[in-house]
Amino acid sequence: MTIYYSLTFLLLAAEMVTFCLLVSPLPFTVRKNLFRFLSESPIVAKVAYGLKISFIFVGILFLDALQRMFRVTAETEMAKTGGQSMHDVRTETNFAARKFYAQRNTYLTGFCLFLSLVLTRTFSIILDLIHTQEEYAKLKKVVGAGAKGDQSKQIEELKKKLAASEAKDRDFANLKKQAAQQADEFDRLASKYNEAVGAVSDKKSD
């Protein structure tokens, strides 16, 4: 394997490790800090810029490997259907090795490009999910604070109504007590008045 295909394989392995890290079930705080660092760090931005340039070269390698694979396949089919002899073991092995290397390079570069697209899309989706969860948490706090404020207002209103009701009950009890006292006083005066009227009547009759 040449040096640029070896670097492509290392890049593919790094993409696989990164993808496993992104989809791993991390705690929300750890994931939020990790994605915030990846999205806001200038060092990561420079690395991402360098990777974009490297993916351009990987795309060129993919096109070259695809062209070679088609050419080797066509040459193999031509050798089988043409007048060339495929009974020679070394010739057949040579064609098979060339076809294998061409297919290997095509799959290697193709999967590297495909996984780069998957990583980009996965990163953006998870980042949007984190932002949505943060907005939901903020909205939940606001709604909770508003609900607590409404409950406090209701409690205060109920306390005021209870105090007013207790005051009315006290006023009614005082009024009832005064009415009872006045009724007793009226009965006492009425009794005295009846006694006085009865005494006057007895004197007149005598």
TrEMBL record:
Keyword NAD: no
Localization in the cell: Endoplasmic reticulum membrane
Membrane topology: Multi-pass membrane protein
Domain BAP29/BAP31 transmembrane residue range list: 1-138
Domain Bap31/Bap29 cytoplasmic coiled-coil: 153-206
Pfam families named among the record's database cross-references: Bap31, Bap31_Bap29_C
Primary localization: endoplasmic reticulum
Entry's transmembrane regions: 7-27, 47-66, 107-130
Keywords for this protein: Coiled coil, Endoplasmic reticulum, ER-Golgi transport, Membrane, Protein transport, Receptor, Transmembrane, Transmembrane helix, Transport
InterPro entries listed in its UniProt record: BAP29/BAP31, BAP29/BAP31_N, Bap31/Bap29_C
Keyword Endoplasmic reticulum: yes
Coiled-coil stretches: 148-192
Described function: May play a role in anterograde transport of membrane proteins from the endoplasmic reticulum to the Golgi.
The family this protein is said to belong to: Belongs to the BCAP29/BCAP31 family.
Protein name: Endoplasmic reticulum transmembrane protein
Natural source organism: Suillus subaureus
